Predict the structure.
Amino acid sequence: MFYLIGLGLGDPTDITVKGLEIVKRCSRVYLEMYTSILGCPQEELETFYGRPLLLADRDLVEQGADEILSGAAEEDVALLVVGDPFGATTHTDFILRAKEKKIQYKVVHNASIMNAIGCCGLQLYKFGETVSIPYWDETWKPDSFYDKIKLNRLHNMHTLCLLDIKVKEPTPESLMRRRKEYQPPRFMTVAEATQQLMTIVEKKDALERNTILNELSLCVGLARVGHDSQSIIVNTLREMSQTDLGGPLHSLVIPAKEMHPLEVEFLQQYATLKLEDYNH
Amino acid sequence: MFYLIGLGLGDPTDITVKGLEIVKRCSRVYLEMYTSILGCPQEELETFYGRPLLLADRDLVEQGADEILSGAAEEDVALLVVGDPFGATTHTDFILRAKEKKIQYKVVHNASIMNAIGCCGLQLYKFGETVSIPYWDETWKPDSFYDKIKLNRLHNMHTLCLLDIKVKEPTPESLMRRRKEYQPPRFMTVAEATQQLMTIVEKKDALERNTILNELSLCVGLARVGHDSQSIIVNTLREMSQTDLGGPLHSLVIPAKEMHPLEVEFLQQYATLKLEDYNH
């Protein structure tokens, strides 16, 4: 049997009891930590589980499905992922590869940023399409996520913005060489994301700026959701672009313009601005 | 300390290790099971935890915050909820009540239908606003959820439809009496939900029917997500309205018209129709 097990978001004890029982009895257990990260290193997980883990890095997950799934028809093999197994397309694809090989699979669900984001008090059912904000470089500055935020705002939906993670990215220079060299890991901060968003907002015409999204619009910056050190701040885009929320991972929410009184009351805990009647 | 602990979706072992440790050491532990249900009875949870639970029914949760929170400034009290603590407005409100009373709180996240719905293979980030489909009666047939599904379809987003749950609803006749009597619990099925949806679709004009949503549109029926007996079926609205998915809870997804090839490949596992090039 092949098991895809979600680890949740925080520390080793965020695994479910069901997940832990499976981890303990599997022949091989792989740990995937490049589409997201936990708040603890691999060694801490190994100590807690009382067993060694095989690190499944980007190369192994994207090209090594055969290796990971090998023998899973006869023995128990698990792949551990941060959050919930259906959070990343990579994992959905993995299940299809298992099916192709006629390997039975089971999924153990857990919290992921897609539902834990409710911790800021904005109601989950009112979120529209989720966007990803990618790191810009000198030549590549995609801004299509802005149109999705705009559409959500126009129809009074909140937007969760997932911020870019660069783990085990080959350096451009090494791509041509036999031996890849990797860039140091980078995790986009809320400040970086809001700076990029402000750049886009400034490019758009004045009318749109004033009605849909502008530098005075509210946003929610979240860091380390589900960890003991979780931090949430509510402020304007302009102020948020100068705010340091500490270590990774960060997430950003652009709330709908009209919020329920309970949502406003909840967000107010994290704001210095008076949110009642705030309308930008 | 007041703890709000998510139980996940399936059986007692879906609680996290962190959640279980807290449950074991609390002075009082309440179990809320009217906004959703687990796949097991209260007694099974009590046996697994090795401790008694206090049932927090609708009346106690909505009017008894004082009772549940009583003493939580000095001792540990927990409220267990199905799924994740931020899945229902009631629980968000509970946290605000704790804050008012200057009671510290902690949340233990878990999977909820809002992220576990990814099990059908549709990508979570492409879901738009979530809708709730309420039971109709002779005089009250609300259909505002249809406009939200339509908006999501127009902008190529999937829609998760949460189906009505009636637990501990007073009978209309008993509302005037001193002693309330309750209706038997009811859980809306995928068949009932699609029947209501078909009724709305038939009322709309022919043009709209043909382009946005009609009886040949695809939908995904899900039952008991996260349980061992989980069942997923992909079919047209018309066929789904005649399909029995077994015991509760049921959920329904109306996919976007354009899907990613990986989404189509995943859904195909649950369909007898050929989904490639299907376009209704």
